[in-house]
Amino acid sequence: MRMYTDPKGEAYELIIDLAIRNSECFVLGEKLPADVTQPRQYTSVLGALEPYLMKTIIIQDIDEVMQVGKNYRSHAFYTAGTYYLYRCCEESGNVLKQMASSLSEWTYPALPEDLCFVKEGGGDYLYSVVHERMYGMDITEEEAIELMDRVTGVFLKLEVHRDLDRLLDDAIKHKTDWLYISGHGLTELPDRIRELTELCDLEVFEQDLYRLPEGLFELSKLERLRISTADLECIPSSIAKLKNLKELSIHCASSNRSGFQPKPKEEISLSRIPPEIGELEQLEQLTILYSSIRELPRELENLKQLRMLNVGRCMIKRKPKFLYGMKQLEYINVSQNLF
């Protein structure tokens, strides 16, 4: 069962205790190729865990990755590297709680990577793939609901989250930093989205979504915003309030239902990029695909951190000259075609 966000603080400690009781061993890895120019910062961690070391597995190629993965059925083994398997006991669990305060902290070079707990006979009880922001537990829906009711900060994806109000209730309670919304038949996001004050990453795939509420632009910690829909009314000027935004991605002509036929580009409502977007000083990636946009605002020049600009399948006839002066751009696509 996938987690929306990794547990932190007291929630992390409780999850470690649960995993220790329900698993035979846990795995930490040193993935290859490692950056040999950076000294390992975690020799003390390996030393503290040494009394509980059961096995060291060195994987050198893809065939070995597949074989080990088949034997253990764990998310831990997905690439070449050195893997350490430790016995689960109260003492080894205490080391894990002393050395980190969340699953996301188990990453190179500060710590060995991707803490996973493997059950007797194989299969993960608790897994993490930190660089992909993947975390999860092997528990039932009923166990997950009981755990979420008992512990703030453990937020798992449930079947009952098909009800949007229940999803938002849990997201607000557990102060999630990531949320994916899809399949609710929305034409507009509920304004209570403003209550997700810790949200850093929001992805919405709703075919009928047409309007973005003002409450969305009160999420001051938001770093990534991805919207996929058939048509979007506009990008409100309030986008300027998202001062920490690093990535903005809008895909029109998107559908999650069969038999969909997109409108012609010229009929798409999204026809302009507001000049206020130039106030997003942290923006690194801007993607807007399939729109009736005919020109780019010159205020894009103010985006000194912008590395990728992708305005494809729009109605701009030629690339604006001012883009050639934005030397920091690594990728530019301004085209009436996809590329």
UniProtKB/TrEMBL annotation:
PANTHER family linked to this entry: PTHR48051, RAS SUPPRESSOR PROTEIN 1 (PTHR48051:SF1)
Top-level taxon of the source organism: Bacteria
Keyword Repeat carried by entry: yes
Annotated source species: Paenibacillus terricola
SUPFAM superfamilies named in the record: L domain-like (SSF52058)
InterPro entries the record matches: LRR_dom_sf, LRR_domain-containing
Protein's recorded name: Leucine-rich repeat domain-containing protein
Keywords in alphabetical order: Leucine-rich repeat, Repeat
